[in-house]
Each structure stands twice: as C-alpha cells, then as structure tokens.
Specification:
Layout lengths: L5 H14 L2 H15 L2 H23 L5 H25 L10 H7 L5
Helix pairs in contact: 1-2, 1-3, 2-3, 3-4, 3-5
C-alpha cells in the first residue's frame, strides 16, 4: 500500500467521505475521482464498494426463511459497524481497511484506480 501525503489526503478527503453516503454517493465519488485519481479517495471508494456489495449479498441471504433472516440481521449489524469504521477512517484521514473484510475488498477491487 502506498503512503499518502498530507496534501493527497486533504484533496481526497471529501470524495472519500462521499463514497460512504449511499450508492449514489459512491457513484458521485467514483465520477469525481475519475479525473484526479487520488489514491486516498480510491482506497475509500474500494472499501465502500465492498461494503455495498456485502450489503447486497446479505439482502439476498435474507430471502431464505428463518436461518437467512437471522444471518441477515446479525450480518447487517456487523456491516453497520464496519460502515461506521470506514466513515470514521475517511473523516480522520486514515487509510486503514475496515475490520474483517477490508483487506479482501482492496484485493477484489484492486482494478479501481
């Protein structure tokens, strides 16, 4: 992982924060960052995209009666905690992956530059 300068973090901070605000925010952040290619913003866009995909997968699991509902409820609670962690990292200018799945998100979405 490449280290960001303070200037890079400052420039990409608003885009990184926007990435965590709904799917529309993620799309806006992706479009905003398509020209400048800020590495700090890219990192948080990948994290947010991973969280959104995980939420979608949990929504699909929710279709399964009883066991799926239980897994989905607990998964959504964990996902909310991960989302808050990612948002706080973006707000504080930190480039640390969300717990549990963050490193996988970086690997899976490494094509987003």
């Amino acid at each position: 992982m490449e280290t960001n300068t303070q200037q890079s973090i400052t420039e990409g901070k608003s885009t990184a924060i926007i990435a965590y605000i709904t799917v529309i925010g993620l799309i806006i952040a992706f479009v905003q960052n398509s020209e400048k290619k800020n590495t700090f913003a890219n990192f948080h866009i990948r994290q947010s995209l991973g969280l959104m995909c995980t939420g979608f997968a949990l929504g699909l699991v929710n279709i399964i009666p009883i066991l799926g509902w239980i897994v989905s409820v607990f998964g959504m609670i964990v996902l909310l905690i991960l989302w808050i962690s990612g948002l706080l990292n973006a707000l504080n200018g930190k480039e640390s992956p969300v717990p549990i799945l963050g490193n996988l998100y970086n690997k899976w979405f490494s094509g987003i530059q």
